Predict the 3D structure of the following.
Amino acid sequence: SAVISQKPSRDICQRGTSLTIQCQVDSQVTMMFWYRQQPGQSLTLIATANQGSEATYESGFVIDKFPISRPNLTFSTLTVSNMSPEDSSIYLCSVDVTGITGELFFGEGSRLTVL
Amino acid sequence: DQQVKQNSPSLSVQEGRISILNCDYTNSMFDYFLWYKKYPAEGPTFLISISSIKDKNEDGRFTVFLNKSAKHLSLHIVPSQPGDSAVYFCAAKRAGNNRKLIWGLGTSLAVNP
């Protein structure tokens, strides 16, 4: 298992600003995943963060909008840049401990509201 | 195109009875199916999974059934308890793609005392 801490848990932001979300894991993991859950929608994978290499972004998500850092095996950050109201979502950090079955452990999420 | 579908947005069940949550999928390349539970203001929690080579997996009060010919799986909770009230997500993983899960929209389960 893994215990994941995310900060901030929630924030209200102004349009055009940027916010960085931090994710700390209590064990070393190879891959960390950043998800988004927009209101009324399911979870959507934004990108996979590997330590020591560039993040891999899913279709529809770009590095300029969602830059990710992965400085070590227990920590990652996701920045939501130049925010608009459409970015209002819950952002979730997760890790895959088994590496085989897709069983993920999630942080508690960061709820962003953009005015 | 939604590859994983949970057609019931909500379900209400009496305490002690069986809860059945359904999930349909379209992609025959999925090799693992997973169920997650999510309480408000918390991240999803892994509940139970099933490999595509099996048709049933049981863990305590939770059983997942897989019908590959119908591309359908279901989660049974017996007996249901008020603490089971949460949103349940069905998710699927494609063979050879360990990093990405495809998620359903979720079903909100309410277990009434």
The first strand of chain A starts at residue 4 and ends at 7.
